[in-house]
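> forwarded from #structure-qc
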């Protein structure tokens, strides 16, 4: 059995008030703070190494381990916004008390920051025991909400990341870093609130770090690419337009998928200059295709993020792209998401009015997945709804998705709005959509996204795509 010099969460000795001495205790909960946790974890790891050296000498004993858990109260800021300062502190103190009780004498529990806690526990034999223990923490808060002075009963959703010493780190900060990577993964997947560290998380984190560092140079180094996926008339099979999609061709890593860099671009604000670039490029390419005789009604769809659409500069950015390319506004469509339309916003309202007045079309992307309110269909001059891939994908086996798709098409047509179905991959999908009267299809049944050069070749063949 592992022995160490730690004293669990027993009361610490009185701390000296010397300003040079680090503060080791969190004032709100009475638990060790981050600095105090690092010290206690270091002592327990030292004890672990000593014990395992003894076990190695006595070959009949297996090696000991320590399990580290990072426990996060999800949507913590939402709770803080509802509670006053005193109740918020009582919430944290109640959570701390519960975690200490659940951890028992063989654990050290700490508060790291905000609604994040840490626990190191000995005596668990591998991932199965660790998983069972983590589930018991989540279940405790599910079955027994936190009661605050009989005023609130709070159901606290938790996410937990787990790492183990010595397997995932033999030094405190290294081990805590890996535990935090596991917590980040758990927080991104609410359906699986417990996640163990594995080496792929570190590889992914290093890759994301590279992306964040080098994305700033991607535009200056001419590494961004505009790709185009055709939008097909379901009546004629003719290419009616295309959606513009951004790609990053990294000199060392090759083509980086948008899901790997767009979130970083949005988080860092780089999405604004990147969107301006792709808007300019898409307008230039489309004008060239129109001038080459590939269709005077060809319309290019350009995605604008909520962040970009709400900027006061958005009208100027679009105007610049139109003027520099010479394209007719009627050949341009701006795609937005439903979330942008749910709240009154002077800039958004003014931008919509301007887009309508100059003739640019507006489409709502991923329709049906985010919000139940349809009132924005009355308030905004929309030209197109794009039914999300998640409904189209299972048309051949889901009566619910089929009914929703048919209903959206009927609703849109009743108020003179065009409908595009995204993610069309099977002939069954195409036939069903034709029977429902859907206007346009988009998906791998016809083509994957293509470079401008490949898209030009497709147009040159006549612009009619058989399924």
């Amino acid at each position: 059995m592992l022995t160490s010099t730690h004293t669990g969460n027993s009361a610490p000795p009185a701390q000296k008030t010397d300003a040079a001495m680090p503060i080791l205790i969190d004032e709100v909960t009475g638990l060790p703070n981050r600095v105090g946790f690092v010290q206690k974890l270091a002592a327990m790891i030292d004890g672990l190494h000593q014990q395992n050296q003894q076990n190695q000498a006595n070959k009949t004993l297996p090696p000991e381990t320590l399990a580290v858990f990072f426990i996060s109260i999800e949507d913590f800021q939402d709770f803080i916004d509802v509670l006053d300062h005193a109740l918020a502190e009582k919430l944290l103190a109640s959570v701390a008390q519960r975690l200490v009780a659940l951890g028992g004498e063989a654990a050290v529990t700490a508060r790291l920051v905000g609604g994040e806690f840490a626990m190191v526990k000995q005596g668990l034999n591998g991932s199965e025991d660790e998983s069972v223990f983590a589930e018991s923490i989540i279940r405790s808060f599910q079955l027994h909400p936190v009661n605050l002075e009989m005023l609130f009963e709070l159901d606290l959703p938790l996410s937990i990341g787990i790492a183990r010493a010595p397997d995932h780190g033999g030094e405190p900060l290294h081990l805590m870093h890996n535990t935090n990577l596991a917590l980040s993964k758990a927080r991104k997947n609410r359906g699986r609130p417990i996640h163990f560290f594995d080496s792929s998380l570190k590889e992914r984190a290093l890759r994301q770090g590279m992306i964040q560092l080098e994305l700033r140079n991607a535009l200056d180094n001419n590494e961004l690419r505009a790709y185009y996926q055709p939008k097909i008339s379901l009546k004629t099979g003719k290419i009616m337009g295309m959606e513009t999609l951004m790609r990053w061709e990294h000199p060392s890593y090759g083509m980086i998928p948008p899901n790997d860099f767009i979130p970083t671009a949005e988080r860092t604000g780089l999405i604004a200059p990147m969107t301006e670039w792709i808007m300019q490029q898409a307008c230039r390419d489309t004008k060239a295709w129109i001038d080459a005789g590939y269709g005077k009604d060809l319309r290019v769809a350009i995605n604008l993020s909520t962040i970009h659409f709400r900027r006061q500069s958005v009208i100027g950015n679009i105007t610049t792209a139109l003027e520099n390319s010479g394209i007719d506004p009627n050949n341009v469509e701006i795609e937005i998401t439903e979330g942008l339309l749910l709240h009154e916003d002077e800039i958004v309202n003014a931008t919509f009015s301007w887009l309508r007045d100059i003739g640019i079309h507006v489409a709502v992307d991923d329709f049906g997945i985010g919000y139940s309110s349809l009132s924005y269909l009355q308030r905004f001059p929309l030209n197109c709804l794009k039914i999300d891939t998640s409904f189209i994908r299972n048309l051949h086996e889901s009566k619910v998705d089929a009914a929703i798709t048919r209903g959206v098409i009927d609703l849109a047509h009743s108020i003179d709005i065009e409908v595009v179905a995204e993610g069309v991959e099977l002939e069954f999908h195409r036939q069903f959509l034709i029977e429902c009267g859907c206007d346009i299809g988009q998906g791998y049944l016809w083509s994957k996204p293509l470079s401008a050069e490949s898209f030009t070749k497709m147009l040159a063949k006549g612009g009619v795509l058989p399924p």
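QC bot note: The first strand starts at residue 66 and ends at 73. The domain at 34-197 is CATH 3.30.70.270 (Alpha-Beta Plaits).
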